[in-house]
Design brief:
The protein is α/β, with parallel strands linked by helices. It is built from 14 helices and nine strands.
C-alpha cells in the first residue's frame, strides 16, 4: 500500500514521468501503447541516478507508456467503476479480491509473463487471489509508526502513543479509511477484518476523541514526508518502505511495528477486464518482474520484493534490514486486510464521513 503523491496528482491523475507523457509518433512507438495506473513514488524513475524504468521499457519494446498515479485503493476502484480505461493496475490485496469478485479483472496469460516464475512460492495462491490467476505480486510491506527520536521522551512501542495527549498537535494520521480505522481497531484489540459494527464504531469514536483532544495535527498521505523529515511532527502512521526513504533524509526518525500487531500488505499487478492492450500489458508486467528492473525498483522506493532473484541480487544490508524484512515473530503479529462484505464497506464509508466531518 502502499503510496504517495501530491494533491494535484491525486486530483488530476497527471503523468509524473515526462518520458511517459506528451505526444509521440507511431515511428517512435511502433508497437502501440499501454496505460498504467500505479501509486505515486512507487517506481524507479531515473532521479538521483536511478534507472528510469518507463524509459527503459519504451526503448526496449517500442511501446508507449501512459503512466498515471492514484492516491489509494478506494479511488482506484472508483476510477474503474466510472469507466476509466487502464491496461495495468497495481491494487493492494483486499482490493484485488473485491475486483475479482465483481468481475473487474481479466485472467492473465502467463505464457506471456515467464518472469512470473521468479515469484517466491510463499506469495503464490494468496487469499486475495487463491489460484494466482489474476495477479502478479509487485511489492510487499508493513504499516507502522514513524517517530522522531528527538521529539519523544521514550521509544514508541504501542498504537497507544498516537492517542497520548502529551503529543497534542504532533501526530499525523494516514488519510485512508482502512488504514486509519484499522489503527484504532488494533489499539482496541480487534481484527482489521472485523465485520462487527459496534467494534468499528468504537474505533471511529476513538479517532474522533483523538481529534477532539487536539492530538492530530493532520490526516495526510504524501505530506508526511516533508512533515516528518522536517521535524514538523513527532510521529505518524505510514508504510515501512517510505520510512526507509525518509530515514535517509532524517536519521533521527525511527520505525516500529506496534506490539498489538499491524498490517502486512501485498500490492500486485493486474489487468482490468476489457483492457484495450492486454498483450502489451502482459509485456509490461513481465518486464517489471525482470531481475534488473526489480532491483532498481526496490533500491529506489524502499519496499520489499517478492521476487527470488531480486532478493539474492540486492545488497545484504537491504535484505537484512528488519524494517524491510521483519523477523518471523514480527510477521506473525501482522494481519493482512481482507475484502469485506458490501454491508461492512458501506458502513466504513459512513463512519469515515462521520470521522472527517
Amino acid at each position: 500500500m502502499k503510496k504517495v503523491l501530491s494533491l494535484v496528482l491525486a486530483v488530476l491523475l497527471v503523468c509524473p514521468l515526462l518520458t511517459a507523457c506528451g505526444g509521440s509518433s507511431s515511428s517512435q512507438y511502433p508497437n502501440g501503447e499501454v496505460n498504467v495506473l500505479n501509486w505515486g513514488e512507487y517506481i524507479s524513475d531515473g532521479q538521483d541516478g536511478t534507472m528510469d524504468v518507463i524509459a527503459k521499457f519504451q526503448k526496449e519494446t517500442g511501446i508507449k507508456v501512459n503512466y498515471n498515479v492514484c492516491p489509494d485503493n478506494e479511488t482506484l476502484y472508483a476510477n474503474l467503476k466510472q469507466g476509466d480505461s487502464y491496461d495495468v493496475i497495481i491494487p493492494s490485496d483486499y482490493m484485488i479480491s473485491r475486483l475479482i469478485d465483481e468481475g473487474m479483472l481479466t485472467p492473465l496469460n502467463f505464457d506471456n509473463i515467464p518472469n512470473a516464475a521468479d515469484v517466491d512460492p510463499k506469495f503464490l495462491n494468496p487469499a486475495y487471489d487463491p489460484n494466482s490467476a489474476y495477479s502478479v505480486p509487485y511489492m510487499w510491506g508493513t504499516v507502522g509508526i514513524i517517530y522522531n527520536t528527538t521529539m519523544v521522551d521514550q521509544a514508541v512501542t504501542s498504537w497507544d502513543s498516537l492517542f497520548d495527549k502529551k503529543y497534542a498537535g504532533q501526530v499525523l494520521m494516514i488519510n485512508n479509511s482502512r488504514d486509519a480505522i484499522g489503527v484504532a481497531l488494533k489499539d482496541l484489540g480487534y481484527s482489521y477484518n472485523t465485520t462487527d459494527q459496534s467494534q468499528i464504531t468504537a474505533a471511529v469514536n476513538l479517532l474522533i476523541q483523538q481529534k477532539k483532544d487536539g492530538i492530530v495535527q493532520a490526516y495526510v498521505m504524501d505530506e508526511i514526508f516533508d512533515k516528518l523529515e522536517g521535524g514538523e511532527a513527532a510521529m505518524g502512521v505510514y508504510y515501512a518502505g517510505d520510512y526507509l526513504t525518509m530515514h535517509e533524509n532524517n536519521p533521527d526518525l525511527a520505525f516500529v511495528i506496534p506490539s498489538e500487531g499491524s498490517n502486512i500488505f501485498t500490492d500486485a499487478m493486474c489487468i482490468p477486464a476489457g483492457a484495450a492492450n492486454q498483450s502489451n500489458a502482459e509485456k509490461f508486467i513481465n518486464f517489471m518482474c525482470s531481475t534488473d528492473v526489480g532491483v532498481a525498483n526496490c533500491e529506489a522506493i524502499g519496499y520489499s520484493t517478492p521476487l527470488m532473484s531480486v532478493t539474492k541480487a540486492l545488497d545484504p544490508t537491504i535484505t537484512s534490514n528488519p524494517v524491510a524484512y521483519p523477523s518471523d515473530d514480527v510477521m506473525a503479529s501482522c494481519e493482512a486486510f481482507l475484502n469485506l462484505p458490501d454491508a461492512t464497506l458501506k458502513f466504513y464509508d459512513s463512519e469515515w464521513l462521520r470521522l472527517k466531518a
